[in-house]
User: Fold this.
Amino acid sequence: MKLSTPRWWYVREGAPAPITRALLKPVSWIWTAATARRMARARPVDPGAPVICVGNLTVGGSGKTPVVRELLRRLPGAHGLSRGYGGSEHGPLRVDPARHTAAEVGDEPLMLAADAPIWIARDRAAGALAAIDTGASAIVMDDGHQNPSLKKALSLVVVDGETRNGVWPLGDGSVFPAGPLREPLAVGLARADAVILMLPADLERPDPELLAALAAKPVLFARLEPAEPPPPGPQVGFAGIGMPWKVERALKAAGCELVDFVPFPDHFAYDAAALKLIEGRAEIFDAGLVTTEKDWVRLPPAWRDRARAWPVRAVFEDEAALERLLAPYR
Assistant:
């Protein structure tokens, strides 16, 4: 059973559920120790081509996958590499959107494969070697900042820049499951070459305190902007991503006539009960259905004509700074 992301993770001070957080603290210490031990014992493999890792400091929801798509667009000879989370295939396997399903290869790889060569592999080193054997000039790894199996030429971490209404993307500094961090902030930043701060489209400037927390590394600003307008008319939105409430806000900011929104856990597999719920809400409001590209690829084929995928792309404020980072890997 998948659980929804707890919103109290993203409260900086005085978060609710103090007893729950206290009980989870010892588990977070174990998680932190296990991650540190895995990193220390690893012997990273050099696959023979540069590996550009786009990772997270927190558990999901930062806009990492659109950044991977943008880097692949800018590096035409590169192939993408993913673990294939949520899929049954272990790989190494090149994703074929005409043949594979999200249940087989995962939703993010299937979405990315519409635009670039994408490989999935539980063994990232084996996946990178397979991609390079077929002509990849570089590897863009989707996630993997805490995976030490490959030698990385460039490590980028994507951080959510939403800080309004009491939200703090780093929480109170606690590590999963007591908070959203995958490892202590200073430890994760130390292995990064740069931070991509993903700002909401309707937020003019980043929070100075958040910038100060990330000041140990260069920070590039990016935004998730609509690749096309939302569908016209009343719409019921739904999303199963790390922070589904961000999709709701983004749709409204883009001018969508959103009459209802149904959140689901990240990587949610849409079953008959969930689809009936969504369909019922649309009938009540006499509305269309709109969702993310990542959710759309998880829908049964018969449903893909009934719901509209709303694409977004990562747009960088300083294009020249991004090009300087990528220039050695062209």
Q: What stands out?
A: The chain is about 30% helix and 20% strand.
